Amino acid sequence: MKGQSKRLGSPMITLIGALIIGFTSLAGCETVSARDTSIPTAVELQRVVDDAHAKFKDLKDGKNADYIPILATIPSELFGVAIVTNDGRVYTAGDSDYAFAIESVSKPFNLAMVMQEQGPEAVREKIGVEPTGLPFNSKLAIELLKTRSVNPLVNAGAIAQVSMVKAKDEDERWAKVQGNLSAFAGVKELPLSDETFKSEYESAWSNRAIANLLYNYGRLYSDPEEAMRVYTKQCSLLITTEELGLMGATLSNGGVNPKTGKRLLNEEHVPELLSLMLTAGFYDESGQWSYTAGLPSKTGVGGGIVSVVPGEMAIAAFSPRLNEAGNSVRAQKAINYIAEQLQLNIFDGR
């Protein structure tokens, strides 16, 4: 596709833009100017993706997750970067076609299906929307917090999400979860890695305890083992960096997949989902990520990260080496670099 693309507008983006450019000083200072939000040319986008990959490909910091045995075996030098724009243009570098376990990056996209079925208010009432202030796999949070589950992007809330999916049995629940994530990725079916599922399920004592605690407190809405099993399968789906970028671009495009044209989330629900990604999508570094990159994002211990630039594009990256918070070292540096180069921070008034 040649030439520059027309930026796709939406009520949500119009509102964000109005908020950014509308702030003025009570002391009479000049109005803050909004940054140029036109999507860069194809050459510029490919260049910044290539530069991000080249800049961080030799970084050796971090290590693979090993508490899930299969993840420790993934080649640690793998590194893919992708940008997918709202009109479906794709720019990649590195190992962008390598299929890795989606893990927790799946959480906001499964939540989108629950929102589509039951609305954001059901999520607030049955799970909650506040950060826990504790690790993503914390059982202590369930005991300390009065409402037991408070956020759908930590493990407790994600298992509760799965239990909220409307289904008559486990087979239907799994089919809906897999089908929805595949639709976000723009493919017929994301493959389930039986090896990953077996590795995770056989070592899932922590998540099993979380599911049973939630059930005990009335904050799980199906059989606990069924919810935990479907959730583990969800995390064991394989996805490429390019497909992950398309998932993010579906959110940046107001809930419509740029490749298939299929609506997967009503546009009016997208802001609620992005707000959760901004405040809780980066594990214990969510505040730091919002402070620096300023983009709604979700990470996973499989090494994937997706970031959403509302109304414009998504940036995805993958590399297995994680920092202590469980976030991919290379992937977050690549995305942050791209966000800086293209001035994509949603709070940036330039």
Briefly, what is this?
This protein has helices at 11-22, 42-56, 107-118, 120-126, 140-144, 155-164, 170-185, 194-201, 205-216, 224-235, 241-252, 270-280, 286-292, 329-341, and strands at 80-85, 90-94, 100-101, 238-239, 297-299, 304-309, 313-318.
Word description of this protein:
The chain contains 14 helices and 7 strands. The chain is α+β, with helices and mostly antiparallel strands and 350 residues long. It has 2 domains: 11-98 and 240-341, Beta-lactamase; 106-235, Beta-lactamase (3-Layer(aba) Sandwich), CATH 3.40.710. The chain has a 5-stranded antiparallel beta sheet, sandwiched between helices. A two-stranded antiparallel sheet has the order 3-4. A hairpin with a 4-residue loop joins strand 5 (297-299) and strand 6 (304-309). It is globular and about 55 Å long.
